[in-house]
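Fill in residues.
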């Protein structure tokens, strides 16, 4: 669960001005005093209410040193959804203004591979080993054709849907048109996982892309995964997950975007770290 930077600006309330306005109006001294006290108390309450929940009164989370930048990492993951109370006003949109996306269903057979992954558009390949070939002592028996692995310039990650149909009493497997995997939205500290960073959960094979961030994630080695429903969010909970980075995002693009909003402390912390000022980022509270 994360908190966003979109917070209404504080409204300045001048209690003295309200009291002076009342004192200008001719009234009895006793009534004047009572009204002044009531207005002063109301003004003080309004100031306290306006201050609650703002970035100025909210302490940043404890700073953690960044993880080593590697294509394989083990990170703390949490989950969030757009129906949480602190996200309702932003509906189902991320920090970039686009719609939050839930990842496709788990694959459950993703492998931890260090083979180079090529990209076509916004998709990446999840590599899998070839199925075991049948063994035979008969040299005359036709051998299955084995295609040699070659490094392709572009490849595509697809999910093939297989259905079984009965044709004249025989079972026939029909392959539907392959579909690219659905990439889910993730929120993180953009100084550690820049916007656009695409990664794969090795435990499920699901792919996510960083397009969001939050207050509780600044200076933390945590990635928040977007879930479509509250039930999915609760089911995920908090987990230590091994991930494979398929594509690193652009740090300069992240910095340009965040610099426009660094009046907020959590964004300022990310900006400082992107600028290489880790000590200053750690000291920011």
């Amino acid at each position: 669960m994360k908190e966003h930077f979109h917070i209404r600006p504080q409204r300045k309330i001048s209690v003295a001005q309200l009291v002076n306005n009342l004192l200008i109006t001719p009234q009895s001294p006793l009534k004047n005093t009572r009204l002044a006290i009531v207005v002063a108390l109301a003004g003080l309450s309004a100031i306290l209410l306006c201050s609650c929940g703002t970035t100025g009164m909210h302490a940043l989370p404890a700073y953690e040193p960044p993880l080593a930048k590697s294509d394989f990492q083990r990170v703390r993951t949490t989950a969030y959804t757009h129906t949480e109370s602190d996200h309702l006003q932003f509906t189902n949109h991320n920090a970039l203004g686009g719609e939050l996306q839930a990842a496709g269903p788990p694959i459950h057979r993703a492998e931890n591979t260090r083979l180079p992954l090529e990209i076509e558009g916004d998709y990446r390949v999840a590599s899998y080993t070839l199925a075991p070939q049948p063994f035979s002592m008969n040299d005359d028996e036709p051998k299955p054709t084995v295609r040699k692995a070659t490094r392709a310039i572009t490849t595509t990650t697809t999910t093939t849907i297989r259905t079984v149909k009965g044709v004249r009493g025989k079972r026939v497997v029909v392959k539907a048109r392959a579909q690219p995997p659905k990439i889910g939205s993730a929120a993180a500290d953009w100084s550690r996982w820049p916007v656009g960073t695409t990664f794969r959960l090795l435990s499920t094979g699901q792919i996510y892309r960083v397009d969001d961030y939050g207050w509780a994630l600044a200076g933390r080695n945590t990635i928040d995964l977007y879930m479509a429903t509250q039930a999915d969010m609760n089911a995920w909970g908090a987990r230590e997950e091994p991930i494979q980075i398929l594509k690193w995002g652009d740090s300069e693009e992240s910095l340009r975007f965040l610099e426009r909003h660094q009046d907020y402390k959590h964004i300022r912390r990310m900006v400082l770290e992107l600028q290489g000022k880790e000590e200053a980022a750690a000291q920011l509270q």
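DSSP finds six helices and ten strands in the chain.
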